[in-house]
Each structure stands twice: as C-alpha cells, then as structure tokens.
Amino acid sequence: MARDLDHALKHVPLRAPAPLYERPQPPKGVFSSQRGFMRALGLVAVLLVAVLPFMDASRYTMSIATSALIYVMLCMGLNVVVGYAGLLDLGYIAFFAVGAYISGIFTTVLGWPMWAALIATIVACITAGIIIGAPTLRLRSDYLAIVTLGFGEIIRITANNLKITGGPSGIHGIPTWSFGPWGFDDGFNLFGIDFPERVVFYYFVAAVVIVVGVIGAGRLAKGRLGRAWKAVRDDEDAAEAMGINTYIAKISAYIIGAVWAGMAGQLMATHLSAISPNSFQFLYSALILMAVVLGGMGSTPGVIIGALFVSLAPELLRDFAEWRYLIFGVLLVVVMLFRPSGLWPATAVLPWLRRTRPTPPAFTEATAVPASVMESVDGTPTTEAHEGDRA
Amino acid sequence: MMQLIWNGLIVGSFYALVALGYSMVYGIIKLLNFAHGDIYMLGAFVGFFTLSAFGISNETSIPLLLVVLLLSMVTTGLIGVGIERIAYRPLRRSPRLAVLITAIGVSFTLEYGVRQIFGPNPEAFPIRLESSGFDVLGMRVTASQIVLVVIAAVLMLVLAHIVERTRQGRAMRAIALDPTGAQLMGVNVDRVIAMVFFIGSALAGAAGVMAGAYYGSIDFLMGFIIGLKAFTAAVIGGIGNLYGAMLGGVLLGMLESFGSAWFGGEWRDVFAFGFLILFLTLKPTGLLGARVVERM
Question: Are B295 and A140 in contact (CB under 8 A)?
C-alpha cells in the first residue's frame, strides 16, 4: 500500500511552501562570503603596495612607505602576542632592537654576508624570546606587562652602554644586500623603468617580507596553535583543562612575536643603514601597542589599518606631529572605554552579510496566510498539485 | 659606605612614597596604575607652576616648600580621583588587559599633555635646597636631606595611621580582602576607592615636589622611570602591603646606590630592573606579601 502510494506520488513535484514574505536576495560574487571578500581585499592591498613605486618612486615616498611596511610587520608580530595570546608585552621594541643590532653587528663588526646575518638574527630572536619568556610567562598578566617593560629598558640601556653596539651613537654603515658582483646599491633597469635607488629595492624586499609575514600570522591564528592561543587568552584555566599546554602555547606566541619583530628590525637596520639606542625607547613599544589596540586586537585588517595610521599620520599631517602622542594617549583611553574591540574588531562581520531576521510584514487581512498555504504546510498535497500532475 | 647608605635612604624614600600609591591601588582594586609615575611628575609641575606664577625663583625657604608640598598634594590627589572616575571606574568589570591599556593611555596623556603645556625641555625647579652640610659618622649630610627624609617619614606615619586606625582605613582593608563582601556590609566602595586614589596620588605628588627641590630640574618624562622603580620597590616589599612598599623603596634605593658604586652609574637601571625580574620569578609575593591564590 505504502509502496503504491510512493509509486503514485513519484511524479508529483514536491513544492516547498511559498515564503510568507519576500526574503532578501543573498549577495553574489566576491561579496557573497566573508572569506572571499577578505581575500579580494588582501589582493587589492598587495596590488596597491606593488604598484606604488611605479607611481611615485621618490626617495621620500619610498622611505616612509618602507617604514610604514616595517610598522605593519611589527604590529602583526605584537598582534600575535597581545591580540591572539592575550599577553601584554610592553617591551616589544626590545626584539626589534635585538634584530636590528644583531644584523648590524654581524654585518659590520664581524663582516658576515647578509644572508648569514639574517639567519643569525632569527636564531638570536628565538633565543631572546625564550630567555625573556621562560621565566616571566608563568607570571600574572599585569606582572608580565611590567617585566617586559623592564626587559625592554634593560636591552636599550645595555645597547647604550656596550662598546660592541657603538654606545649612544649606535652602528653606522650597515651594508645592503648583494649577490656576487651586483648589489642593491647598483640600481637596476626593468622594462625601461629606472630603479636607481636602493630605497626602491628595500621597499620591494620589505613588501615581500611583510606580505608573507601578514599572511603567515593570519594563517597561524587559524590553525591548531592559533586556536590554542585564543583559548589561553579567553580563559587560561579552562584551556588547561581542555588539554592545552598553556605554557608552550604562550611561549610559542612569544617566540613568533620575537621573530616577526626581529625580521622587522633587520629590515629597518638595512633600510636606514644606521641604528641607535634612541630608536628603541619605550615610546615605540607603546606606539606599536596603540596601533594594535586602535585597529582591533586579533584582527588582521584592523592591525594593518592601525599600523598605517600610527606610522603615516605624522607624515601626512605635519601640524599634527607635535600633538600626536597626546592624541594617541587620549585615543587609547577613549577606544578602551567606548570601543574596546578596536576600529575593525576581530569578530567583525561585513555589514551586508550580517544575518538579521527580516521583519515580518504587519498582519493584515491582505497578508493573512491563505488556507491553501496552510494546507501545504501541513503536508497534505493540495488539489492544485494533483491537477498540475494530471495535466 | 655610610655615604652610600645615606644616599640610598634619600632616593629610597622617594621610591617608597611613590610605591605606596602603587601598592595601595593594587591592593584594593588589583589595578597596575601605570599613570602613577606621571602623577609624581605632575606634582613637580604643579609646584613649579604655582611658584612661577608668584614669580618665585631660587628660593631656599623650607616653610615655603611645605606650603607648595601641601598644595601639590591636594591638586595631584584631585587629579588622581578624576582619572579614576573617568578612565578606570567604567572599566572595573572589564578584563585586565583593557584596564592596563587604559592606564598606559592615561600615562601618555599626562606626559604629553604636560609637554604641550610646559614644553619638552627640562625646567629649573624654583626652590633650591642649600647644599651646605656637615659630617656625621663619615657621611656628608645636608640639612635639606634630613628635612626630606623627615617629611617622607611623617607622610608614611600619617598614612599608616589612616589605614590602621580609622574607619576609612578599615573600609579600605575590607575592600582589599573582598570587594563584594565589603559592599554587602555597607561600605561605599566607590567612595573608598576614590579616597585611595586621592591618598596615593597625593603621596606621589609630594614625592614629585621633593624630588624637584632635591634634584633641581624637572621634565615631562621624569615620572616614567620612577614609576617603574616604584613598582619594583612595591614588588620587592610585597605588593599590596604598605610596610612592604616602604621597606622595598628604601631597600631598592640602597641596592641602586651600592649597585652604581660597584658597576658604574650607567648600569643603575639595569641593576634595578634585574632585581625586579629576579624577584618576580623567584618570589612574586615579595618580602612581606601574603600568598595570593588567584583565579584569573
């Protein structure tokens, strides 16, 4: 009997009940998913970075653009520590200093080639991350903040006092990259466009490193380790109870932050070819933290926006330069009070993708549900369906 | 040797005064007030501003110093209360990270606000203490140094009296133990916390004026390092413990004094921060602090 019924209904088109009211059309194309849109946005950003030297290759533009990119790298590194793992690091600039000084000392005093110095820089940063992190990461969050601040000052004062770091005047004449006979200093001619200055090359090198750094940090945050970081940030005890080794998670965040900062320091040292202890004051640690907080802790687009704002604002607004620290300080308080998740929060959903329940039309006689619809909702096929079948 | 101890004692009494405010605020609402060092700086600048407004410079009178000291204490105390009201109170239930970041923002605002008003260059403090001294037990002591140490000691005694003997002090200790419980017992928590901020900031302001008179020059960043040092002092003594803060301050002053004599003055700060890290990793509760079991 049931089988007969199945057979009889085989060709009856099953119709979903008509919607009670019009639903909004889902967005199409790159706008249809958060991920796709963010990727497209990232691609546009990378293209913009790549095209900039072809529009304005003046020494000044390239110089501030390179500095801005280095800021982005630093902020992405700090974002791993503060944004993902929730460890407030107030001496972050120390790792930047370690990277800059190690590459400076190895290339000038010891005369190593740049690639070897780069490896030494990374090794030194990992070591510094472990040395600073190992004893302090068991501490409470606020103690950690002040200990890292102390470490930052120790590194700066040590660089200021030692002979090998050049004392207060720092290290000069850090060489640039060279491959055999050809170095970045020599310039290059591509498709008839002259790239005379090493500045442009540094811009490209920095751009590649930073793009890799940004994508790398973003990918790490999505993986197993990244989820462990966020769990530790949200509730350390609960994370531990779930089987996460919180100490390993924290120290790996610290080491990755250190490596990111070290790479940025290496780029800075070769870009400016001179470094001095004054570039590694607490002020800069605070500025990087501000960029991360203003942009949105744990949010890649937010942190990039914050980094660009903090590094470019004094260049673009000359009059503002003198007031900037005061304004940044006030902004920091205001953001924390009124929008603690920052300009572009990590949990942000694109406005057109936000799922809102469509407001049902007011219930009137005209919009009342017709009897036939009610029947189809009940599951009994309506007479029209049978008629359609026969026709 | 004795000279080193004496110098350490003077610097240590400044540290202790600032550390007291740190320690009190931390003990009561578990907030690391980064802006505390900058309150010290504000104290010095309030003194500078009032004295300059009356056209006083190169004065050596000690009664005048006391008047300025009181004025600065009241002003910085009120500023401290204002900061608590605007920046910290709305965030009292927020995660720690948010409050810490706010405190850094406040610190920046104070530093660079003062820089915008008074300019980036160091200013000469209008009251200079005379440097004629006498020898006691093989150390050189000046009358003004004695005055500074006595003022610091008196302030600490007054504070100890307030915390241990008065009704308000009992309320403070109750909140430090259990804020919710204290509130249930009828303690006006907001008012007591505001009072703690007033007292702590007033002490830091007093230290600022004294440091201005002692060193003779003030600048807008003078609070940063001393804030760190005072925190170190508070940690050495055991944060949240008043006598610990006093002991830690004096001890840190001596350690620095000996450290710079042995390793050279340029390593003084490294020495102090090294001690901070050592203490935090080996004995985070400090010398006099109670063991804290904590659920973050």
Answer: no
